[in-house]
Amino acid sequence: MNINKNYLNLESSYLFSTIAKKVNEFKSANPNKEIIRLGIGDVTLPLPKVAISAMHAAVDDQAKKETFHGYGEEQGYAFLREAIVDYYQKKGVKLDANEVFVSDGAKSDIGNILDIFDNENIVLVPNPVYPVYVDTNIMSGRKVVFMDGNESNGFLPLPDENVKADLIYICSPNNPTGAVYDRAGLEKWVEYAQKNHAIILFDSAYEAFVNDSELPTSIYEIEGAKKCAIEFCSLSKTAGFTGTRCGYTIIPFEIECEEASLNKLWVRRQTTKFNGVSYIVQRGAQAIFSDEGIAEAKENISYYMENAKILSKALDEMNIWYVGGKNSPYLWLKCPKGMKSWDFFDKILTEVCVVGTPGAGFGENGEGFFRLTAFNTHENTTKAVERLKKLKF
Ligand code: PLP
Question: If we measure between CA atoms, which residue out of 290, 257, 275, 318 comes closest to residue 83?
Answer without folding.
Answer: 290
